[in-house]
């Protein structure tokens, strides 16, 4: 059994989902799914569902525009002025972190790589290189720059050109911004979407948890639980095929440990589908 999350009350709807998944209660999960309303713009329910069908494009584009609406509006204002202040950078970093897409997989049509491109297009941003509004996650520790694996920054316009803003906290708790040249960052990746594995230890006001349309060995109840419990206030389950959710609840790791070291039994159907966390 996994540890209890204190982000939400156990008797909240998110708490009910987390408890049922953690206990491997397939029928309870099926009952919760049946009573979960569909996501639509302006939804205020704590748990909603989105079933994109065969294509993620339209459904996830609409979800992303709604989830990052305030951030995107503020970003457009900064881009129009051509110069971002420290206070604006802190606000943009905080606003961006209110919503996050979490994927079970890195590759494939429902994975991080594909969805990062889709979401950048949905927000009217560039697809390659450095551009204003690009969110990046550090992928390995850089002690020279005092950056740790998992730190998130935003590329923003300044008087000196594009710079990447990272929030930092002083010993007295005061927040400030560090600005770095993009050329100094050689171990970062775009992070409109991230894997559940990368999100361990993080929390977001609204999480959209994206499952693939086929079961894979890494899609286990432990991964589902971790994804669900990243949400503080709202959870949107993006599930192309409801049967995959039921299969994932029944699929458990063979040994304890982080999501990066899963060891799973494979059925013949599992072996035919790839994917990694």
From TrEMBL:
<keyword id="KW-0378">Hydrolase</keyword>
<dbReference type="InterPro" id="IPR027417">
    <property type="entry name" value="P-loop_NTPase"/>
</dbReference>
<feature type="domain" description="UvrD-like helicase C-terminal">
    <location>
        <begin position="191"/>
        <end position="238"/>
    </location>
</feature>
<protein>
    <submittedName>
        <fullName>RecBCD enzyme subunit RecD</fullName>
        <ecNumber>3.1.11.5</ecNumber>
    </submittedName>
</protein>
<dbReference type="GO" id="GO:0008854">
    <property type="term" value="F:exodeoxyribonuclease V activity"/>
</dbReference>
<dbReference type="Pfam" id="PF13538">
    <property type="entry name" value="UvrD_C_2"/>
</dbReference>
<dbReference type="InterPro" id="IPR027785">
    <property type="entry name" value="UvrD-like_helicase_C"/>
</dbReference>
């Amino acid at each position: 059994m996994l540890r209890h999350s204190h982000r939400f009350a156990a008797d909240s709807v998110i708490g009910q989902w987390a408890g049922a998944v953690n206990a491997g209660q397939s029928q309870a999960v099926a009952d919760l799914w049946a009573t979960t309303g569909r996501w639509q713009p302006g939804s205020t329910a704590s748990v909603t569902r989105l079933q994109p069908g065969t294509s993620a494009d339209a459904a996830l584009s609409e979800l992303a525009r709604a989830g990052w609406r305030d951030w995107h509006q503020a970003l457009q204002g900064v881009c129009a002025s051509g110069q971002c202040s420290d206070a604006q950078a802190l606000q943009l970093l905080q606003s961006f972190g209110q919503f996050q897409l979490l994927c079970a997989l890195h590759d494939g049509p429902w994975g991080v790589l594909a969805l990062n491109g889709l979401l950048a297009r949905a927000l009217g941003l560039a697809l390659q290189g450095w551009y204003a509004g690009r969110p990046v996650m550090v992928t390995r520790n850089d002690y020279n720059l005092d950056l740790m694996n998992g730190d998130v920054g935003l590329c923003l316009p300044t008087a000196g050109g594009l710079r990447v803003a990272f929030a930092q906290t002083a010993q007295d708790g005061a927040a400030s911004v560090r600005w770095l040249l993009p050329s100094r960052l050689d171990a970062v990746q775009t992070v409109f979407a991230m894997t559940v594995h990368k999100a361990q230890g993080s929390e977001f006001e609204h999480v959209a948890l994206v499952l693939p349309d086929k079961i894979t060995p890494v899609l286990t109840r432990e991964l589902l639980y971790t994804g669900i419990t990243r949400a503080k206030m709202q959870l949107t389950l993006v599930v192309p095929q409801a049967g995959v959710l039921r299969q994932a609840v029944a699929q458990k790791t063979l040994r304890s440990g982080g999501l990066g070291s899963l060891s799973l039994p494979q059925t013949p159907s599992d072996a035919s589908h790839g994917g990694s966390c």
